[in-house]
Amino acid sequence: MADEYKLSSVHVHSKLCDGKNTLDELAVTAWHAGLKTLGFSGHSHTPCDIEYCMTQSRTALYKAQVAKLKERYAGKLDILCGLEWDLFSDDDPTAYDYFIGSAHYVRGPKTGRYYEIDFREADLAACIQDDFDGDGLAVVEAYFDNVRQVAQHKPPILGHIDLIKKINKGNKFFDETSPRYMAAARKALEAAAANGCVLEVNTSSVYRGYRDDFFPGEEILRAWKEMGGEVIITADAHEAKALTFGYEEAAAQLKALGYDHVQVLGKDGFVPCAL
Q: What is the CA radius of gyration of the chain?
């Protein structure tokens, strides 16, 4: 059914990790908005993380609260207990209804430090200077290799594949038009294709004011189309009012690039939706 993609939001974060709303507030908003499916995807416990992932105790609370919401909204809103699983996480992603595979860190080959590459400019700058001899594109290559490794775990959804560009607006740290950039991205795409991942088109980069373009960029989407890859539109919502932000714009972009459908995740799995 056309526009069915507008009724599903499956990349959603709550106060139990780095979101602004409770699980209950998110569910109420989704229900009032007429959504059919709400998939929570809390950030998986990751030992090297110091600020945004769920602790192990919060992970247990997360599962319990989502289970209660499933019961409360039965017949009104399909709620899924998902996980945004990081490459360096120690949680079991198969213990959830679904998971989004993502990479947020690059481990420095010299210092052994884990750098969060999508938040503080100072961290990305230190990563480039202290561990990659000032070569920003070498960090890009390391990041996309992490994404390649994530894809090998066969996540149903591969999250924000080019997150490395988030704080690189204006090519501040590296040149996104460099052949090295796309060559590294293509290796990650090839792994995603080989492992049957659905590629996420994530609108949060625009909603949160970091970029004027979504994740991923058009060149990556063209390459993915050539590989016959499937896509899903998500908001990566960190607050209730963002649950379906930018969906129509993302759909229009995909259609302009030659995509004729997107995948929609519901309680029974993925279903194609015409654009």
A: 18
